[in-house]
Amino acid sequence: MKKCKLFFNFEKEEKWLQDMASDGWRLQSVMFTYTFKKSKPESAVIRTDFHVFSSRSRYLDYLTLFEDCGWKHIAGYKSCGMQYFIRTRDDASEDIFSDAASKAGKYKRAADMWLSLFATYLAFSATLFLNSSVGMRWSYVTNPRSAFFTPDIWSRTGAAFWKAFLIESPFAFFRIFSPVILFICVVLFGIFTVAFLLQYRKYKNKWTEQINTGNNS
Amino acid sequence: MNRDTNLPLTETTYYVLLSLFEAAHGYAILQKVEALSDGQVRLAAGTLYGALENLEKQKMICQIPGDDPRRKIYGITEKGRTILTLDYERMRSLINTTDKYLLKAGDQYEEV
Question: Which of B32, B33, B54, B70 to probe the A interface (max A CBs under 10 A)?
Fold first, then answer.
């Protein structure tokens, strides 16, 4: 079963995956969507981490450390950041983080990645909009008819209209939807960045508080 | 006083550096830290990996070639030793100051 869902908070995502597991849906992979396999209902402890790895050997070292500590990797890729683990031993810790500082670090790494994507997409769209030879214009979105370049296409009728329309529509759709998709990406990446930065600050403050009161468990 | 910006070290960082005077892989570091701290500091996998990554970035630890392709061996660097020593001295001076201050108060020591 595939499910499409967006989370701006890792704890809520973990909770949801655990609820799915107790309903008998075991997480199999995450690639744009969540893929689940039907299995027997179980009360699983699922935790997520965020790391992008520069080499396969580092990734392997990371996965082995978690495995040694009683956490099995169930989904995630070397270069995609999100890593999903399920607890395999009862004597393993309740969480994969033993202090708020390292939990804050996870949100910081995620926020940094989304910020760089946001900046890249923003620069990319700005270039496309400002470069008149590429011809990306917001007016194609607000006035889709103008995205068809065939002269007087809208005054034609019958077969003459449909022929011109069908020939040009793939190009016109591209002109209409590419600014929309770019816009959605920029906004979404911006929201991800802000959401993760806020979580980062929350855990960082929690950590400072714990240090000041001498309780860092 | 012109102090190194890495100071003071967190308890996690201090114990990880201390345990790496003898090179070890990830899980062995966890066990060593737990033993060194009499079971007081039990690091979770994500916390340890984050600490190792940061320490490596700051060049306080480095990877040492080993036989196991699945487990990398880490060891402390010269810079790591220096910073650990600085933090040790910082804490010792803190303890000395406290002792001196409270001992001067003599019989009030126990009441404090």
Answer: B70
- How far B68 CA lies from chain A's nearest CA (Å)? 10
CB pairs under 8 A between A and B: 72
Residue A158: left (phi > 0), alpha (psi -120 to 50), or beta?
left
* Boundaries of domain holding A69: 2-87
Quick check: A33 contacting B, CB < 8 Å? Answer: no
CB contact under 8 A, A65 and B49: yes
What pLDDT is recorded for position A134? 66
- Are A38 and A16 members of one domain? yes
Encoding tokens for residue B86?
A: 């600085």
Give the pLDDT band of residue B112 (cuts 50, 70, 90).
very low
Please answer whether residues A193 and A118 qualify as being in contact, where contact means their C-beta atoms are separated by less than 8 angstroms: yes
DSSP B10: P
Is residue A95 included in any domain, yes or no?
no
- Check CB contact under 8 Å for A69 and B45: yes
Provide the ipTM: 0.85
Q: pLDDT of A31-77, one tens digit each?
A: 889 999 999 998 999 999 999 999 999 999 999 999 999 999 999 99
Read off φ and ψ for residue B22, nearest 5 degrees.
-115, 120
In a domain, A94, yes or no: no
Are A192 and A112 members of one domain? yes
Q: Which helix (H) or strand (E) holds A126?
A: helix A100-130
Contact status, residue A84 vs residue A51, Cβ threshold 8 Å: no
Read off the amino acid at residue B33. V
On whether both A77 and A177 belong to a single domain, the answer is no
